[in-house]
């Protein structure tokens, strides 16, 4: 229980809040600062940055103010939450944390023989590849020469802001695809924008919508415990010790209610855009192919879940929104 308290604290503060909500908000600012609405990369990524700034603004008061959820429902409180996020961001890497294949390799989980029932990898890579193929088609339609990339001052300015330090008005990201002078290849562009779309959709969905499954029974995945962790291997702990560590009924109910709310999908599924930004024929065709691919992935996951001991639905395209909206 105490180990899961630490895991839950890191999950909520870093994996969920910092590495999806906050990362995407800073990217959204950079997109709107540098890419004009007519820019093909703006139109590509806009449906996936539609709600994030609004939900973050709304959530700050309810979650991160004094008396908010992180203050009263988590053992770490506000001070611990900010400390965890600040410390984790020091080592957060755009590539090793944000690009799924690189992340799996970085964690030595890219070999299918390792953790054979690791469905996050199995299903997640299919969604990643579908997004990357979609992005690749559109990017290569507009960037056919090195000059197309090098002279695109909007793209270069955007990438420069991603790597510029926070103190100097940038995002402060490490390991953004490209070189010191900026973006030089279409593959770098594809990696950057695939990461953005994946984080906004499958990345957030997989870390957010399963919260009630875990937090819904507080002894399984507690956000708050009372007292101090066990410190003796000799002492025999009883059910009474467990009950004494659990928070009050009111606190547990509030935590369960919050996790249920956060686990509710309330916007359209990936590829079904609330607002249409893509009008050129190449992009329209690419989106049509993207939707067909996602449909096939959904069918494959349905078949696999019939024989899996525990069905895994986090990367089923029907359960993935386009953007962070909760």
* Structural class based on helices, strands and sheet pairing: mainly alpha
- What form results from the Cα inertia axes? globular
Strand count:
0
Compressed to H and E, one letter per element, the order equals HHHHHHHHHHHHHH
Helix content: 55-70%
* Beta-strand content: under 5%
| Uncertain residue ranges | none
Biggest beta sheet summary: none
How many whole angstroms does the radius of gyration measure?
21 Å
Note the gap between the termini.
27 Å
Task: Tell me which oligomeric state these chains represent.
Answer: single chain
Number of separate helices? 14
Let me know the average pLDDT: 94
Structure description:
The protein is an all-alpha fold and 326 residues long. The protein is built from 14 helices and no strands. The protein has helices at residues 2-34, 40-45, 52-63, 69-72, 77-89, 100-106, 119-142, 146-150, 153-163, 186-208, 211-215, 239-245, 249-262, 281-305. The longest helix has 33 residues, at 2-34. The protein is globular, with a radius of gyration of 21 Å. The chain starts with a helix and ends in a 21-residue tail after the last helix.
Outline the secondary-structure elements:
Blueprint: H1 2-34, H2 40-45, H3 52-63, H4 69-72, H5 77-89, H6 100-106, H7 119-142, H8 146-150, H9 153-163, H10 186-208, H11 211-215, H12 239-245, H13 249-262, H14 281-305
